[in-house]
Amino acid sequence: MMNWKTIFNPFGRFDDRLLLTVGLISTALAIVMGYWTGSYFSSIYKINNLDRVTLQAVAVPTLISFASAIIILFILGKILNNKTRLIDIVNTVLISQLVLIILQATDKIPFIKNAQDRMIGLQGKPSEALPIGDLMIVVGMASFALIILIYSITIYYNGFKTATNIKKWQHIVLFTAVSLIMTLICQIVTSKYF
């Protein structure tokens, strides 16, 4: 039976092999969606657009981003709890990215893209009235993106917490700091080379 705990922490409820399968499928979907939308993951929480879209230009930085997060979190997990398993960290990273694929697709929805383009076009014209419909679409999409991001981060945190059994606030702070630094470094590296 599904409940709120399952929705926000599927790692305690579902078999790790099932989660791994879903995670690998979501990675493939992220690459396919990136190819379709001309975007890639420059880190686990940053989606960038590409000027020249090729399967390699989408797949390589996306896979590097996910693999970097897995390696760094696995090392941190082993430091915090020697019993941390690699499959649990892989599942944490891949499952947390699953919902972000939805955000990749929003660039291909015409009315959202058109509303964003019109709002951007008005930046240089402060005297013109804001189109209420476009403003509502842009604010609605920003709110939706924020909800998706918060959910993804919740899954990410709960997965790591389940994998490592961390409880001390110092470990949570260390996890947060390592995640932020890792995300920023990965964005810089992948954006520079891809």
UniProtKB/TrEMBL annotation:
It is a multi-pass membrane protein. Residues 18-185 form the Yip1 domain. It comes from the Bacteria. It is found in: Membrane. The keyword Transmembrane helix applies. The keyword Membrane applies. Keywords: Membrane, Transmembrane, Transmembrane helix. GO terms for cellular component: membrane. InterPro entries: Yip1_dom. The chain crosses the membrane at residues 58-77, 89-106, 135-157, 169-190. Pfam families: Yip1 (PF04893). This is Yip1 domain-containing protein.
